[in-house]
Every structure is written in C-alpha cells, then in structure tokens.
Amino acid sequence: MFDYDLPPLVPHGGNLGDAVRRYGIARERWIDLSTGINPVGYPVPAIAHQAWLRLPDDEDDLETIAALHYGSPRALAMAGTQAAIRVLPEVLPKGPIGVGLLTYGEYAPAFARAGFDVERFVTEPFADRQGQAAFVLEPGHALPENLKHLVLVNPNNPSTERFAPDVVMDWHRQLAARGGTLVVDEAFVEALPELSVASRADEEGLVVLRSIGKFFGLAGARVGFVLASAPIDRAMRRLRGPWTVSGPARIVVRAALLDTAWQTETRARLAAASKRLAEMLGAYGLDASHTPLFAWARQPNAQQWQDCLARQGIWVRRFETVAGLRVGLPAFDEATWSRLEAALRNVRSETDGR
Description:
Function: Decarboxylates L-threonine-O-3-phosphate to yield (R)-1-amino-2-propanol O-2-phosphate, the precursor for the linkage between the nucleotide loop and the corrin ring in cobalamin.
Catalytic activity: O-phospho-L-threonine + H(+) = (R)-1-aminopropan-2-yl phosphate + CO2
Organism: Trinickia symbiotica
CATH architecture of the largest domain: 3-Layer(aba) Sandwich
Strand content: 15-25%
InterPro entries: Aminotransferase_I/II_large (IPR004839), CobD (IPR005860), NHTrfase_class1_PyrdxlP-BS (IPR004838), PyrdxlP-dep_Trfase (IPR015424), PyrdxlP-dep_Trfase_major (IPR015421), PyrdxlP-dep_Trfase_small (IPR015422)
Domain Aminotransferase class I/classII large: 73-340
C-alpha cells in the first residue's frame, strides 16, 4: 500500500453533504446558496442515444463556436477551468507568481506544487490585511519588479471586486515586457461581458479562462475554455489529451453558447436578482457587495451567521482568511426568497441577543 503525502483538499462551496451530516437535516430540505451557480441554468436539450455510445468528437465545431462567442481567435475545451488550473503550471516558465489572498483557492496550491514561488497579494479594500501579503495590487501602479506572473480573477470570487479592461491590460503589459504571463480567470464574467479581455487573448503573455458552469448553470457538465496565444494553446492541448470533454456535454454546451436570446434574458434576470439579494442581506445587517451571481459580506462573526442559517436549512459559504460570507442566488421563486428572508430575520434577532 502506497503512503502518499498528499496536500489537504481545498474547501469549496457545493459541499452540501457536510451540512447534512453536521446538522442532521435531510438533503431535500436545504436551500444551498454556497456556490455562485445560476440556480435556473440553461435548459438542457434532448441528447440522442448515439452520443452515449461514441467517443467524444474533439474535431467537432464546439471550440470554433466558443471562440466566436468569446471573440477570441481560438478556444481550448477543458474538463472545467479546474482542469486548466492544474495544467497551466506545466506550460509557464518558473518564476514568482502573484495570487490573491482572498480569491479562488485552487491557484496557490497548484502553482506551489509545481515549484513556483507564490506571492499573495491584497487589493485596496483589504489593505488592513497587508501584513499577510507580499504586496498590494493597485490599478495604475507598478507591479513588484520580481513578479513574473499574476493570477487575476475578474470579477473576484468571493469579494466581487471588478477590474476594468484597461487596468487589466496595463498589468498584462508590465508582465509581458518581462517575459511573464497574466492569467485572467473570467469564470463569473459572462453576466458582465464589458469586463472581459477575451478578445485580446491572442497577445503573448495573456491567458483567459472561461467557465460554462456558473452563468449557464451547467457546472455538472464540467466544461471550461482556455483562450490563449497559439504556442500556449498547443502546449496545453498536448497535455490535455484526447476526449477530455464528454460527448453529451459538448452537445449541451454547444447549444448554450449559440442561444443568444437565452443569454440576454438571463443577464437581465440575474442582475435584478442579485440586486435584490444584496438589499435583503443589507436589511438584516450584512453589508453586501454583489456580482450578478452571488453576494459577499465581510462579517467578523461569519461563523455564527453560517451556523444560524444552517440550523434553518440554508447553507452559505464561510471564508476564514478574511472573515465573511458568500451567498449565492436563491431559486427564482417567491417561496424560496421568503424562506431566506425569514431565516435572515431570525439570525439578526439571535446575533443581536433579542
């Protein structure tokens, strides 16, 4: 029996099984708001039986459709952006890489395992945590001279910060001049297309990651795309190997990317719902910022809030690096919204000691 010294798993939302075991509430009674996934995802079309019998066709038109959708010269389909994060360290030259202190948790361990020197940064809203970071990332300011690469999640998960394209491309320009790379994770940008730099992804030193799981609500399909220059695309394609995205998933994602009417309607719906969510959280003591897919509230007693909500069958994601809560969108029905509001009211009463 092998004794592997494996690193601990990175915690994520969607861990409803943990809540079921901890609180003894049956799974079907929970409202799971622990992720930033659209609760009313793309309506999956009928899939022909033959799609389950054949190997996936890596030469179909899925990547061409994705490239057109993102406005990029090319697109590489992966089994979710998570798979891309595991491959990226293999195609970038070694050097110090900046990763946010409060951001998607898989980047730092992936690059550290590959031998990169990971330098954590904070942005201006978290300047009080500067002592935990190597540098502060500020628009219009020079990056640290030693930095080779930078990972930027835009909008950031979970803190909802947004970075304008001209700011993003200024950081890219600085890194490219020193032979480095800017990795822009746009997993949540589909609802905010004005933030995207996907159309610039052919430039040397820029890699853009796009996700199908969040906006389209197709997380179970496990499909994402890498948008990059031809050399990086070729290198990642070789490492990816064949048949990484299943045939049925390719069919569903192709339909979703082509359905522009659904996309337009969904952007409007998510914008209204997320505004309502942030206002509701604020009414009960959580000062929340939001993207169209989730809200974030910095909260010193986040653990108490998570526990109080969980005892009422509502599961949210708690962060410890910077104490706070990420709350995803409820399903778009009034009964779910009413249940969430009642739970927040109860938590506010409990935390206020009334």
